[in-house]
Amino acid sequence: MDRRSGRSEGRRRNWRGAALAGGMGLLAACERGPQSALHPAGRNAEAILDLTLILVAGGGVIFLFVMALAGYAVIARPERFPGGRAWIIGGGLVFPIVTLTALQVYEFAVARQLSDTGGVEPLRIEVTGYMWWWEVRYPDVRVEGGEVLRTANRLVIPAGRPVEVVVTAADVIHSFWVPSLGGKMDMIPGHENRLILVGERPGTYRGQCAEYCGAQHALMAFDVVVEPPDRFEEWLAAERRPAAEPEGPQQTAGRDAFLRAGCGSCHTVRGTPANGAAGPDLTHVGGRGALAAGTLPNTPEALAGWIAGAQHIKPENRMPSFPILGGDDLHAIAVWLESLK
Amino acid sequence: MTPPLDDAALPNRLPRPKEELEALKRAWKPTSGLGLLKEVNNNIIGVMYIATALLFFVISGTLALVMRTQLAVPENDVLGHSLYNQFFTVHGTGMMFLFAVPIVEAIGVFLLPSMLAARDLPFPRLSAFAFWAYLFGGLAFFCSLIFEVAPDGGWFMYPPLTSMKFSPGINADFWLLGIGFIEISAIAGAIEIIVGILRTRPPGMTLDKIPVYCWSMLVMAGMIVFAFPAVIVATALLEIERAFDWPFFIAERGGAPLLWQHLFWFFGHPEVYIIFLPAAGLVSMMVPALAQRPLVGHDWVVVALVGTGFFSFGLWVHHMFATGIPPLSLSFFSAASMAVSVPAGIQVFAWIATLGKGRLQWTVATWFLLGFLFIFVAGGLTGVMVAVIPFDWQAHDSYFVVAHLHYVLIGGMVFPVFAGLYHWWPTLKGTMLSERLGRWAFWMMFIGFNVAFFPMHVSGLMGMPRRVYTYPGDLGWNVLNMVSTVGAFVMAFGVLLVLIDMARDAFGRGRPAPENPWKAGTLEWIPNDNYATRSIPHVRSLYPLWDNPSLSREVQEGAHYLPGAPTRRRETIVTSPIEARPQYLMPMPGPHWSHFLAGLFTAAHFICLAVQLYWVSLVPGVLAIASVFWWVWSLDKGADHPPQDVGGGWRVPVYLQGSENHSWWGTAVLLLVDGTAFACLCFTYVFLWTVSPDVWPVGTDALPGLGWLFGEAALWVVAAGAMLLASRAVAGNRPWATRGLLLAGLLLMLAAAVAEPYNRIASGLVASESAYGAIVYMLASWQVFHVVILVLMTGFTLARSFAGRLHARRRVTFDNVMLVWLYTCGQGIVSLLLVHLFPRLAV
Fold this sequence. Notes:
The complex is a heterodimer.
Chain A: H1 7-23, H2 43-75, H3 85-114, E1 123-130, E2 133-142, E3 148-152, E4 154-158, E5 163-169, E6 174-176, E7 185-187, E8 193-197, E9 203-208, E10 221-227, H4 229-240, H5 248-260, E11 290-291, E12 296-297, H6 300-313, H7 327-338
Parallel strand pairs in A: 1-5, 4-10
Antiparallel strand pairs in A: 1-2, 2-3, 5-8, 6-7, 9-10, 11-12
Chain B: H1 18-27, H2 42-71, H3 81-115, H4 124-146, H5 171-199, H6 212-244, H7 257-291, H8 298-311, H9 327-339, H10 341-357, H11 364-387, H12 389-395, H13 399-424, H14 426-429, E1 431-432, H15 435-461, H16 478-509, E2 511-512, H17 544-547, H18 551-557, E3 571-575, E4 582-587, H19 594-610, H20 618-633, E5 644-647, E6 650-652, H21 662-691, H22 706-731, H23 735-762, H24 771-802, H25 812-842
Antiparallel strand pairs in B: 1-2, 3-4, 5-6
Domain Cytochrome oxidase subunit II copper A binding (chain A): 120-238
GO molecular function, one term (chain A): heme binding
Keywords (chain A): Copper, Electron transport, Heme, Iron, Membrane, Metal-binding, Respiratory chain, Transmembrane, Transmembrane helix, Transport
């Protein structure tokens, strides 16, 4: 959004994040994380951080006042302590009713703002939670061949344009949460929920499942990449193309070994016979930031290790380990997949 | 009946004859050795109950320490994912169901009778049964960890993760059956507490003179009555789905995962106040005692307690702000969540004003209370924060919420309970805990707590979700987690010091306490024995010991009510619920094996079910029922003594039947529980329809004809009529008419209960095909279950009739059965109207 851009705005955000962290008295919080509500990179996260600051400041003042009063009550002589029942009526009844009513009004204003798309047609993205990865679909984008664009564990969105994320789950309840961009929304089987996100600062932000979803709930993360609009269009164009043809004998051997080992019964690589739907689409897997839903860095070595020992790295996930694959095959598959940018 | 006392006179003349005290001692003689298992006295059961709850607190807390060790550094491998998930599930479940609720009930069992100067609670065997069931059930639950089959679906057990498809092991069954069963014990305790507070108060203690703690317990028990049925229904539905594939929560067949969340949190939020209110009640007793002046704004505090009870049922959706519920409903629940901070604020300011207006004694309890104020106010303020919906969208299911909930629960409940341990310890056996150790313990716990939990506010906002067994090291969470772990160990060390202090005292190292060491004003500080106080005082104010300094001496000399044991057995005075005027002298059961065996066999039955030994489970099941029959057979003795003089000119009967009888009240409260459970099932029916109207039958073709509705409803009406006639036959002492009518009515009920599932099967409805089929059969099964209970109860009543124990002047058992019977008929008709008319009218 244009009204909130520029470096002074960024500095103000830093100041607010630091004020909050400092206010809480913990220097550790100054470490900037890619998954932090204290370091917003999107409109909604910013609005919520403003709200958070007000709540922390207001709550802090009330806390200090009540503690000071309690301290005085403990040390003061009874005849010096003013009022009695008046405290109950004033502090316990009138004050909270007035402040909480005001807070409600502010709260609803913020809540309305969070779901506002500003009259702009939002980009629609459908995200489905699986144990323990994320399927991402762009329902209004068709790949070459006419199907809906499908990818996994990474959302790429244009900066400044509202995105409507439609979330659901295929198995158990998950929750979609990118703290740097906005609040979370539960993903419930048989039920669709909507969430508006507006990314502002280009960059890569980490999201993580927030609803306990079984054995590997801890290893269920994803990335949201905010790109400037032109870079986003470029990405979209590249993403719509099928997988690149293998270059050189090793990549060709890798593709062949991939198909021979039956990987295609769960994974799709567009442009090859592999068209399984049970696991993540791998057509452009080499371009993603991480493997196995944020579990491993995306390198050929990590990928080879994952194929050979998925059950060891992330026990109980749906991908079997393939210890039977020989070292050469394994390496070739990894090199080929990594070439699929 | 006689008018109340004038102000000057004592109820009984002094000196009392010597044999009176001896009779009292003989009747209330405690058991020894193995006889402890037979014990029913609240002094003994209460202490064992508290000790067991503390044991479960220590076990659950130890699990937390292991989890904190795992999380101290990123990518740690102290615990694997499987064990970690079991640990956090058992930690949460253990703390909520096996520590928090039981300990507040246990403290009630121990403290309430002495605060009310009653000789015991009205159903001593019921408390003892609840205790044993809880002990055995709790131990079995924790033992599941040893075999690594502990539940691992979280203490909230959300389906579909906990459904058969995603949790095929018996782990989830352990939770569902174990916790479902332990809730029986919580409900038993609630019935005991409600009837105890309303009917066994000392003469003169009118409603406006009830100590605040008793109010808090009354509200808390009332909340259990309306909240726990929701979770019992939820666990029953999920267990049935797992066992028989009835799809209540499976979306593909019209079920709704959110149904569980509504039922669970309809229980789960009041649960928080069920835990907090009794602790607040304890605070409202300790603060005046330590400040040496009456509570400022007593009436406000009572209204605040009752108000919290009401509000707490309107908050449950604030656990579901991120589930996609429409904004309008969310704003209602957000407003209600904020509103509940008003009664909390009223209490906080009442305590502060009392501290300000009094001269404070510095005891260990004082420190714990000040620590409580600090932590609880902070937790309350973060509570307002998470009630703000947009903020909650960030904070929900993050470590911020972990911090918040521990601030309110440890601050709001554990600190007051530990204050209470030090404060009331002298009433146990006249010794005091160490002031020095206690102060060390307090500072360790207070500092450790804040060091452990304060950083979690920040780690949560920095994006750390809850319930993760590990985390990457590059997200900025490392230092915060290490600090939290250190704090957790410091706090645990503080708890250890308290345990050491209590152990010292148990081994005879405690200092002897003076009578009423803190100079408190309420009745529990009158010296007492196994029989409670020597006589039951006439109460004229909120702080009787302050307003009448000689009261304690008068009571000990026997100048007040019931200074002996006139019928030579255990007994206490039952008073009217509002004015507390003596009504009758209730005989109380003494030590017995039956309730112990009933608790043991009930636990065994549920454990067999959990490990899927279905046929074997019938053996302890039948034995448990037999034990209960043995237990209740000797009760309901009739008017076997003439009316007795209890002092103050009151000559009261030893038996009163009808709606003034205490067990009639107990049954009535039980039926409130039952009715709430039924209401939850009706809610389930309507909720499933709103989610999946497409699985409901369209048109009347798939429905059984209306003839079934009218026919079955008529059977229920006639069955109810047969019971009313049987009641008249009892009053007219016509035993054969009674027996015949009971049998005939029972057959009619059986026919009605069977006709419903029969016509559904005939119309081709299959329970496992859709959520519609499942809930229709569920409602029918619920009715069948009631009729099975009534078969047992009616059989028991018939046996008493044949044994000559049922006639016009000895019909309490019969009246209780009649209540259940009439309720069942009414429930049957409502159920029929719902399942037969709703699809015709709404679809």
